[in-house]
Amino acid sequence: MTVYNLGSINIDHIFRLDHLPQAGETLLSRDYLCCLGGKGANQSLALARGGAKVEHIGRMALPDLYFINQLKQAGVNLGSIDTTADTTASAIVMVDDTSGENQIVINPGANQQISTQSIDSSLANAKPGDWALSQNETNAVPYFLQQAKERGLKVCYSAAPFVAEITIELLPITDLLVVNQLEAEALAEALDCTLEQIDVPHLVVTLGAEGARYIGKEGDWALPSPKVNAVDTTGAGDTFLGFLLAALTQQQTIGEAMQLALNAAALQVTRKGTADAIPTLDEVNAFISDQTSTRYSKKEAQ
Fold first, then answer.
1. CB atoms within 10 A of CB 106
2. DSSP β-ladder status, 53-59 and 77-82
3. How far, in Å, CA of 201 to CA of 218, rounded?
4. Does residue 64 contact residue 109 with C-beta atoms inside 8 Å?
5. What predicted TM-score, i.e. pTM, was given to this entire model?
């Protein structure tokens, strides 16, 4: 089972600050990092590190190819990445060193120049039962997901950055919708309904440090997130989605997949950076084992 991910590829410029700037404020950064980013690339990396077979569909400039070495090393198939763009997309990421919260500004560049021909070529070998994944940082998202659905693929839609019109258009072909709390509330408001009435087979709402909620065919319930000291929350949602979908490709239940994804995201926010901070499946399993051992030790001490 393969995940075909139409996803953004960015060069991230990450600045760590004493606090996030207000309007008109100039700050000196504590630290600076230039690295791979973009929700699409992050999710492909998380998928691969979570054990999934992944093909990334995207566009970038050939001189920047070394930025995606992490994807290659993780096992992501890069054959569907068009490298003929003049410039690769980029992002400015500002991180509050105290709270771990962030602000992000994106220059979409090549992410908005993906051709339908590239999409058709990428899906040529897709099989019914494979997954199609996309976010809102590239063009041609409706075309890609509709073509994938017609080929019998299951559709996972990460509706961020949130655009109500596109999300509503894609709901009828979406099998799994993953959004954060604010995005979920905005969608419900746009549809003039409650969260419980959003018509999609499986809805997963991430709740930050509080965990995640599931609404769909399997019921309505929430799971808590492990408690950690967050260093940088950038990319936590992408890590969650990647491990969630990777677990589903390995026939885990939605509950099991969410539990794994929550632990992966919790571990990721204890590290600096975005792509660099995404853990491997072995690291997540070790983290879960440590959490379990700690809980048992506390019980025994009582």
1. 19
2. parallel
3. 9
4. no
5. 0.91
Would you call 84 helix, strand, or coil by DSSP? strand
Report pLDDT digits (tens) over 204-231.
Answer: 999 999 999 999 999 999 999 999 998 8
Catalytic hit among 12, 82, 130, 238: 238
To the nearest 10 degrees (0 to 180), the angle between helices 281-301 and 236-249 is 100
Which of 276, 233, 280, 235 lies closest to 260, judged by CA? 280
Confidence (pLDDT) at 197: 97
**Cβ proximity of 262 and 212 under 8 Å:** yes
Cis bond before residue 161 (omega within 30° of 0): yes
Q: Which of 153, 156, 152, 211 is nearest to 181 (CA)?
A: 211
Distance (Å, rounded) from C-alpha 129 to C-alpha 107? 34
Residue in the block written with tokens 């290659």: 72
Whether the per-residue pLDDT at 9 is higher than 70: the answer is yes
- For each of the domains in the chain, give its residue range(s) and CATH number, in order of start: 2-9+38-88+111-294 (3.40.1190.20)
User: Six-digit token pair at 63?
Assistant: 């001189």
In angstroms, rounded to a whole number, what is the distance separating the alpha carbons of residues 131 and 192? Answer: 29
194: its two tokens: 């409650």
For residue 161, the 8-state DSSP code is: S
Q: How many whole angstroms from its chain centre is CA 165?
A: 20
* Whole-number pLDDT of residue 62: 96
Is 238 in the active site?
yes
What single DSSP character describes residue 220?
E
